[in-house]
Amino acid sequence: MATGVYISKFLAIAIVVLTVSSIGGIITMIIVYENERIKTQPTAPPTTNSTTPYPAGPPPNMRLPGNLIPESYDIVLQPHLYIVMNNTTNQSLVFTGNSTVYFRCVENTKTIVLHSKEQNVTAVKVTDLDKEKIIKVDNTILYSNESNFLEIVLDSVLVKDGNYSLFTAFEGELLDDLAGFYMSSYKKGFIATSQMQPTDARKVFPCFDEPAMKATFRVSLIHRPGTTALANGKVIGTTLEVIDGETWEVTRFQTTKKMSTYLLAFTVSDFHSIGSTHERVDIKTYARPEAIKAGQAKYAASITGNILAFYESTFSTDAYFISTLDQIALPDFSAGAMENWGLVTYRETALLYEEGVSSTSNKEWIATVIAHELAHQWFGNLVTMKWWNDLWLNEGFATYISYMGVDHIEPTWNIKDLIVLNDIQTVFQVDSLASSHPLSSKEDDVQTSSDITQLFDSITYSKGAAVLRMLADYLDERVFLNGLRKYLQAFQYSNTVHKDLWEYLQEAVDEDSSHIKVAEVMDTWTKQMGYPVITINTTNGAVSQEHFLQNQTSDYDFEWHVPIRVMKEGEPIKIATLDKKVLMPDFLSEDGKWVLANINCMGYFRVNYDPVNWDRLLSQLEMNIHEIPIINRGQLIDDAFNLARAKHINVTLALRTTKYLWNDTEYIPWESALRNLDYFILMFDRSEVYGPMQAYLRKQVGGLYQHFENFTMFSTVPEQYNQINAISVACSNDIPECQEMARMLFDNWMTNKTSNRIHPNLKATIYCQAIAAGGEKEWEFAWGKFENATTATEKDKLRYALSCTRKIWLLNRYLEYTLNPDKIRKMDAVSTISYIARNVAGQAIAWNFVRANWNYIKGIMSLGNLIDGVTQRFSTDFELEELWQFLTDHDVEELHLAIRALEQATERTEANIKWVKENKQTVLEWFKNESRREQLN
């Protein structure tokens, strides 16, 4: 039903007349006014001053606005957990605390934007320090996206050049997620510890969590009586205080140097320590009490002071910058180690070594990691990259410098040569994919936490080290180190971009009267992804370069400035520089002599030759291997196999490079060959190619195995790496004497139980081969030893060996164990799954397991390494379809930390499929012919 208002007809007419009259009057007034205005032309009224607009809401990108600069923090943290539990207490996995950040305003604003993540902020107070008054807070907003911004809206303006403080109180959980402030445990107790890099300081307290936002930090830790608290600075006092009716210890630490938030560290534990010798710095190494008692920290303690002193003398920047250096071995730790200034944290396997139990390779790893983390005290801590896109300035330097540190303390190891295997050949594989990335990405391309996390890869670490090694060789190490000293001195306690490094290296070059243009050369190596293949025609001296890709021709017009060391048969080494295609006499063969380029693999590139020169080099290896440097024997093999995969040469030429190995016992050539033949194993161990290939490997490894056989049987180890290779290749390719030896040594251990005669250097490979040849009994024995092992390095060997079984049901059960942190620690889950996927019996079930448990796995694991590990063997159309289906089944948010790894896995799988189709028959015939040739001989 409609509703309305009723009026009379007379009243309606009267209203119309009045309205018309009024409108007419208004029109007349407007006309008169306008005529008068035109005659007098009055001045316009003054405009009122509008209110100055201040940006509201969060910044438009994922970066802090930069209008506030932190200068110092006061931080109080109280982890409530009990280190040792008893029957009268309930464990409390909570921490509370407060923080006051003192900051300077550089641009007027009414908001404070900083970072906070997964905390409950319970109080906020802002103070104008210049006026000594409280500023009212109108609102606080925590953004749930990847920015992790905490926006504090004020009712008045923070003015330029003003000084302010922000107090926050907060509480959070000590989870076992290995990030921020977290809980770790071992058989006798619990630990509160931290891992801030790259973006998890914000999980602990509200802060300006970007590397350029450096400040000083004054930390106090409130902890249970009888426990030990550590932080970045020296302890300046400990008191007992009653808080909420309970007695607590309060440990206060000296104010740190100016540093980035990601370098903060705290631990609370009942650990013991051992000291190191240094004339000025108080160095202590902490670990579980039983580990210290067993002497497992002695080796680390014995070398730390020596490495630190070596770096002090090498870099000459006011020595080490603080008076204390603590190291601690943590039972649960996501990285290998973390360089926190003054409190370096490690996995146990990276710090603890037990004589007679740990291997020489364990000792080498410990020395390398300590040298890496101490190098960071200069490269990363003292001088820090401005933003994460230049992360290689931290990690590439620490990786390269670590070889110098280890070589200083253990000169007999020849550790510098191993950079070719450990870093260069390894990163060549990733950097030959179209999905690679430059060392220095554009700043705008690195925004979110997941963008940052994905940069912690082999490009950043290994390629960074490789190009620095090349540059040091090109400039001369003396000039290079002089430039580094200038760089460190100029930027201490501040931040840099890669251009700053080139500037100070150039200064050193100019002082040496050299004509090298550092930035011009190095920008081609840092701003472009990938690397070149240098093609040399020794018949006319023509030399050219092109972007090397495994699976396709390059869509990029890349050119590099390439320094090349070259030698000719019987002549000394020369160095040349290549920019474009040229004729160079140094690369012209004379009198039928071979030409060899990239001596000792100092350059970050591959080399291809004309067929005649390849024949000459391979003939030289057959006649006298010692004419070719050891590193180049390995690099010829690695280059040939990868050039064949990219169709630059025939696959049979690559296979020919391994024929001479029956006469070589050196590690680098053998390891290069085995890594490349491992690709053939991955591609063909499910096909008819595998039988003839095994026959060839048995023939080639026979001499190497016999060379070491007596040493193995009597548990002496003259040269660990190639002895391990000899056993692994011989046993896995069914040489009866090797399999019998492995079974006998393992059976003896099973019989004696407490007495293990297997040499520590050989344990991993003997355990693996025995478990592979055995059944449930061997597996269960090894699992029991794993559960009860007290040395981390021994646990790691057993954890690997357990993946070697051929029993599918045992592998399935082992995969399930990775979901249970009480059986396989979270930090070890990825490598355990990857070990199982390397086993041909476990590859398919590992991939199915990852897909089935993705919702759990994606939250706790290093997804890039995991995807890489479980897809290495993919080489069929069906497996490619499964990869695509996996991408389709999950949205971007679910995959964000694995996107790059999945792209690389897809690209690699496509390349594998193509390669297998094109080469399978050729490879099969080659191995068959080699077997027939052996039978005829």
TrEMBL record:
Chain segments annotated as coiled-coil in the UniProt record: 892-919
EC category: hydrolase
Residue span(s) of domain Aminopeptidase N-like N-terminal: 70-263
Peptidase M1 membrane alanine aminopeptidase domain sequence ranges: 299-525
Region (Disordered): 40-61
Cofactor note: Binds 1 zinc ion per subunit.
Cross-referenced Pfam families: ERAP1_C, Peptidase_M1, Peptidase_M1_N
Known EC number: 3.4.11.-
Annotated compartments: Membrane
Protein name as catalogued: Aminopeptidase
Organism from which the protein derives: Salmo trutta (Brown trout)
